Amino acid sequence: MQPQFIGVLVAAVLIALAIGYLIRKYIAEAKIASAEAEARKIREDAERLAEARKREAILEVKEEVLKLRNEAERENRERRSELQRLERRLLQKEETLDRKIEGIEKKEEILSRKEHEIEEIKNRLQELHQRQIAELERISGLTCEEARQLLLSNIEKEIQHEAAMMIREMEAKAREEGERRAREIISLAIQRCAADHSAETTVAVIPLPNDEMKGRIIGREGRNIRAFETLTGIDLIIDDTPEAVILSGFDPIRREMAKIALEKLIVDGRIHPARIEEMVEKAQKEIEVQIREAGEQAMFQTGVHGLHPELVNLLGRLKYRTSYGQNVLKHSIEVAHLAGLMASELGVDVQLAKRAGLLHDIGKAVDHQIEGPHVSIGIELAKKYKEHPEVIHAIASHHGDEDPKTIIAVLVQAADAISAARPGARRETLEAYLKRLQKLEEVANSFEGVEKAYAIQAGREVRIMVKPEKVDDLGAIRLARDIARKIESELEYPGQIKVTILREVRVVDYAK
């Protein structure tokens, strides 16, 4: 029984497997058929989309081609228009050139005729010149060579005469130099007492908060102003100037001390003899500090060290000393720098040159108190404080009182002259400046043939316009020399003055 059951079971399994296989085969065939149908559909859709895209691309290409064709046609039209415009311009220029060539040919013809006429005139003039020479030889009884020799002899005599005149002028100039030196000595003496610039260098104006302060400064029966003037040595001028008083005195340090003291009194408001004495003492101590600081600052600026403390104080005092409006301390610092720069170029001791330049005017710090020129005072001070012998010699020779024997002395002398003579170093009053310019123009206008004259460059140059029909080129040279000599003889001026002659000839014609 069991074997039969097993056989039946095996047969059933086989049948089930066969049925399952057939079912799967049917299902697979159905899926394959469905997938093939779907693939055909996708391929057909892709073909349709590709065809549509192809048509769109063809349309776009056609549109782009049409656009490019239109642009090319437009550019061609513009180029044809530009070429036509250029062609018209070329035709116009050709016509203009033709007209100009015709005009030039006519002018050349006229010029050739004129050249021929000029040549004929030149020949006639040459013939006339020969006749005149022959006539002159007949009248004078001299040949051309003899006349030339006579002319050269006369010129030689004139040159000898001019040389004699130059010698005489040099002698006159030497005398003028002596007079100038004498005037310089007098002017230096005037400057030391500040008479020439008293209005500018010997007064100080102190502003007041109100005019009532003037009465308080004067005090009862003038006791305050007397005490102030006695303690400071400076005159206190109280006039009708509103809200201001004036300090007047020749000693610049005392004047500065009085100014500080008075300003302190005005701020404090308590003005009486005891208070004045206290403020004057404070101002004196303050000015001493300022003097010492100014001297130390000068040493720092120039790089000069190791000076005696008294020399440092004397340098500081130069801050309150002027020479023709030039601050002596600033001048000394400038001379030190100039001497040091020149010494470095020449390979000389730079520090020694700066030291000599800084101390060359040290005598001016006390020349109000000690009799004698500032050079002699400076020599004594330098010897007293054991300065270097070359520094002492530079001080002694910087104004030419002694002949410079060292390079340092020559450099200090040159630096002193440069610092004092540079533009703007020395003060000149406006009135004197204007008079000098006016006189310079008057000298130039006094000559015949001068049309206009202008003083320029602060009086360092005069430009003269002459009448060309009256003054030729050689005459302009002589005129410049004559004007320069007259300026030298009649005017006093620093440096030199350039004389420029302008002779202008204008020829105007019109092309019709």
Describe the overall structure.
The chain is mostly helical. The chain contains 15 helices and 8 strands. The protein has helices at residues 2-140, 144-193, 198-201, 212-218, 223-232, 252-268, 273-302, 309-317, 328-346, 350-359, 374-384, 389-397, 407-421, 430-445, 473-490, and strands at 203-207, 235-237, 244-248, 322-323, 326-327, 450-456, 461-466, 498-502. The strands form 3 sheets. The chain has a 3-stranded antiparallel β-sheet with strand order 1-3-2. Strands 6-7-8 form a 3-stranded mixed β-sheet, covered by helices on one side. The termini are far apart. 21% of the residues are buried.
What characteristics describe this protein?
3-stranded antiparallel beta sheet, 15 helices, 512 residues, 8 strands, mainly alpha
Distance between the termini: 152 Å
3D shape: flat
The number of helical runs is 15
Strand content: 5-15%
- As a whole number of angstroms, the C-alpha radius of gyration is 54 Å
Number of strands: 8
Give me the side-by-side strand order of the main sheet.
1-3-2
Low-confidence stretches: 185-200
> What is the mean pLDDT?
82
Helix content: over 70%
